[in-house]
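Q: What does the assembled structure look like for these inputs?
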Amino acid sequence: GAVVSQHPSWVICKSGTSVKIECRSLDFQATTMFWYRQFPKQSLMLMATSNEGSKATYEQGVEKDKFLINHASLTLSTLTVTSAHPEDSSFYICSASSAYQPQHFGDGTRLSIL
Amino acid sequence: AQKITQTQPGMFVQEKEAVTLDCTYDTSDPSYGLFWYKQPSSGEMIFLIYQGSYDQQNATEGRYSLNFQKARKSANLVISASQLGDSAMYFCAMREGARGTSYGKLTFGQGTILTVHP
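A:
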């Protein structure tokens, strides 16, 4: 089946650091990628929808300047958490989709801000 | 209003038995898709099964089947012959608009934690 690679899988860093998470579709061209945030034992909350070559569409309540999304190619989208603080600690997971694929998810990134 | 509702926070089942995970949805769009995903403790989201609103038959994928009752707006997941490896969190999700499995953002339910006992 289709594979989506997300990197890194685990990040621990100091408060104030910016962290970049990559999401790659390995065997199909993803015209649309989605970024989700998940707290322990809770549902996935959509943060933003990213279309290749255009600006991301953010969900209500998500800070655009805090969570920078870039979708520069059909196989790569990045999420940068700028000036991360402890409250940004969470599980971040991306998914990729195209005309012929349901959403396939990456393995997620556990972000811990000290 | 909640668009996807999973009313069972946790379910327990004996190995080799069948289990049904409930999911109800709310939409006024005639075209929508319903998905089930499995999330083990390691965190990855595994796509299990898909049902389109126009599909005449209930979807099946191996041990997974979707009991789609359109008038009741329910899309319950049935897992037959449960295995220990089925222990995980299960999410029901809906995509409104467009046909097929592609595109569109997903709205997820709250999830159900399934525990399979030996």
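The radius of gyration of chain B is 14 Å.
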